[in-house]
Amino acid sequence: MTTSAYQQMIFINLPVNDLDASKKFFTELGYSLNAQFTDENAASVVISDTIVAMLLTKPFYSTFTKKEIADASKTSEVLLCLSAESREKVDELVEKAVAAGGTASDKVQDMDFMYGRSFDDLDGHTWEVVWMNPEAVQG
After folding, report:
1. Which of 15, 41, 91, 129 could anchor a disulfide with 61, C-beta 3.0 to 4.6 Å?
2. pLDDT, tens digit, for every residue of 81-120?
3. Which residues make beta-bridge pairs with 16?
4. What's the burial of 118, exposed, middle or buried (CB within 10 Å: 0-12/13-18/19+)?
5. How far is residue 54's CA from residue 63's CA, in Å, rounded to a whole number?
6. DSSP label at residue 36
């Protein structure tokens, strides 16, 4: 852990098929869009002060890489994991995702000190949501 006051951020860049549908999906989960970095090619989804998901149309995404864009509905490219403040918040976010058109995984992780579920967004990107008992994390 660093003792610096600097808060490192993560910008997750994800290719999407339908930018408007993806913007609607993530705002229905309770996240906001940063208008300064949102246009017809990209949407900046603010997940927290240090986590931003950049949703990019596939043509725009392809300007950043020479690699073939994975079809996340058929292959696993990455597992994105968000923390939650309680078991109830895990369930709440997954239920919002399903109501907004996402798909919940049948797998539930329930290990007393840790509880997690996951969902796929509209493009098949897998998002895990996990709560860990703070006492267990502290050792």
Report:
1. 15
2. 999 999 999 999 999 999 999 999 889 999 989 999 999 9
3. 57
4. buried
5. 14
6. G
Given phi > 0 = left and psi -120 to 50 = alpha, else beta, which region is 37? alpha
Q: Which domains does the chain have, with CATH numbers?
A: 7-67 (3.10.180.10), 70-139 (3.10.180.10)
Alpha helix positions (H), the chain: 19-28, 58-61, 87-99, 134-137
> What's 96's DSSP letter?
H
For residues 32 and 127, give the distance between their C-alpha atoms in angstroms, rounded to a whole number: 17
32-33, strands of its sheet edge to edge: 10-16, 51-57, 42-46, 32-33
CA distance 2 to 132: 22
